Amino acid sequence: MLTKKSVLKNREVSYVSAYKLYQQTIQRPQIIPTGVKRIDELLDGGLQIGRIVEICGQPTSAKSQLSLSIAVNVASRKNIETIYVDTKHDLSGVVIRNMLRSRRYTENVIAETLQKIRVARIYSVEKLIELFENLDKRMTDKDNSLVIIIDSLPSLMYLHHGEAKFEGLNLLAESVLRMRKLVSRHQVAILVVNIITCGRKWTPVEKKKPEEMRLQKPSLGKHWQTVPCVRLLSKWIIDSHAVSFYNFANQMITGFEERKKLSYTSSLRMADKSK
Amino acid sequence: MADIVGTTALDILIEETKQRPIITLCRKLDTALGGGIAPGIITEFCGPPGSGKTQFCFQLCVNVQIPRSIGGVGGKAIFIDTNQDFTPYRVKEIAEICSKRYEDVFKNSPQTSSAEPEFSVEKILDGIRYYYCNDRYELWAAIQLVKARLKEEKDIKLIVIDSICSPIRVMDDYSERIRVLYRILTDLQIMADEYNLAVVLTNNLTSKPGENNQWYLCPALGDTHTHKIGQRILLGRNPKEKDHYVAYLEKVKLSPPVYIGFKITDGGIRGAD
């Protein structure tokens, strides 16, 4: 049972003077450059130890590609270890090898770099929490700095979306606590990949203005928004990707009109009239 | 201390180089995909009706059974049907031509071994296991059933769900829809990971509001679904040429987004050139 005495006995809560903290930050290298020049500029030098950084963006906006290159760049530095938490089988060894080959590295260096990236394939939040717990137990002060890249967190959280009671928000809150604990106690920096979605409440399309539906925000809810210290938005500058896709799709529509089969445009015209 | 996590990216690379992808018989598509539909990844075919999604599924169900001796996978396929699109007659047609081609190859090859594995039409059709699922509960049950069976039958190398969107779209609660979808996809991903099999889904198109109050076509089930699947290929007719189709590699690991032409012949999917 938790009593006042047992709590005071078992938990060490002590203060540190701000001056000591300041000295610690000077002594240790606190910033790990990501190796991507523009991102380093945005982040004031790179990933900071003790902080959580988020990358968010729509699907196919190269979030995974960015986090992979950061993992590769960090792994090719000395005295830093990398853990890549892969929640949707996104990490491909061939892709990393091609990335390194394009930089004209020798095969030996490629193999060494690949060996330095640890990959954890995790398919539930509970397992993620377990990983954080194990890391917290095993890490000591003498260890190298560690960068943890989580690609992606919403992919685990959506398994509990809309559930009765807490919708898995308690699990999210717990993993946040573990992350913060890990980051504050040890030499750890965390990078989390998040996605951007339309608002969650779905109403019939007729009642909704297009602008309203396009209102997009990072997923994982309000609580998560307070967690990362920096949020990077990954986006196509020229929307050529989407444009080409829509052109392609529209071509398909015209193809259908010619054949006088089920036509998308006619149903869309009907929708226009109802306005 | 990072060795709490046992696997390294090198282990994954070695594993990937050992794997045999399932060829699509469309050469350009195969090269772009790195040899074919890769095992361990969820691949989605997406397009309007009549764009060749189901044809691709039939072709892959046959191709997965090409014997290992000539560089195939030599596995079996599971076909989970949710909108009654499975036509055994058409599968037989594709299988007949594939089997004939295989026999021709063996006749012409100089070192014909006596232990030539059989690749007859009956055997191909026998190697496709068909499940019909009417709603999401049946789909869930079928996936669980397959999952339990995989421990014994390790020669299953392909799971096809045609289509994933029809049982999911009936749900009116948006959050429930995402939850059910993610649970199904996670289960499929775990199976693909553990037993090294390819998962192929098909999906329909829907319209979505975009710039200037216009409506655009986009794959159904939303951005959250796009996030979870590994690869997506959009299919459509080529409006300029008759009986020509186009595949657009929207989200593929080893290739930038490109267009690739293909044809649907009596023998199934072939390259357009």
From TrEMBL, chain A:
List each copy of the RecA family profile domain by range: 28-196
GO CC, sorted alphabetically, is: microtubule organizing center; Rad51B-Rad51C-Rad51D-XRCC2 complex; replication fork
Annotated GO biological process: DNA strand invasion; double-strand break repair via homologous recombination; reciprocal meiotic recombination; telomere maintenance
Cross-referenced Pfam families, in alphabetical order?
Rad51 (PF08423)
Primary location recorded for the protein, binned into one broad class: nucleus
Instruction: Give the molecular function GO annotations.
Output: ATP binding; ATP-dependent DNA damage sensor activity; four-way junction DNA binding; single-stranded DNA binding
Lineage, top-rank taxon, reads: Eukaryota
**Which compartments does it reside in?**
Nucleus
For this UniProt record, the keywords arranged alphabetically read as follows:
ATP-binding, DNA damage, DNA recombination, DNA repair, DNA-binding, Nucleotide-binding, Nucleus
Family according to the record:
Belongs to the RecA family. RAD51 subfamily.
Q: Provide the protein name.
A: RecA family profile 1 domain-containing protein
Organism of provenance: Hermetia illucens
From TrEMBL, chain B:
The residues covered by the RecA family profile domain are 18-206
Task: Give the subcellular location.
Answer: Nucleus
Coiled-coil annotation reads none
Lineage of this protein's species? Eukaryota, Metazoa, Ecdysozoa, Arthropoda, Hexapoda
- In terms of domain of life, where is this protein from? Eukaryota
What Pfam families does this protein's entry cite? Rad51
Q: Establish whether keyword Nucleotide-binding is in the entry.
A: yes
Q: Enumerate the UniProt keywords alphabetically.
A: ATP-binding, DNA damage, DNA repair, Nucleotide-binding, Nucleus
Q: What is this protein called?
A: DNA repair protein RAD51 homolog 3
A GO cellular component term found in this entry reads: Rad51C-XRCC3 complex
Organism annotation: Hermetia illucens
MF terms from GO for this chain are: ATP binding; ATP-dependent DNA damage sensor activity; crossover junction DNA endonuclease activity; four-way junction DNA binding
Q: Which GO terms describe its biological process?
A: meiotic DNA recombinase assembly; reciprocal meiotic recombination
| CDD domains, per the entry | Rad51C
Gene3D superfamilies associated with the record: P-loop containing nucleotide triphosphate hydrolases (3.40.50.300)
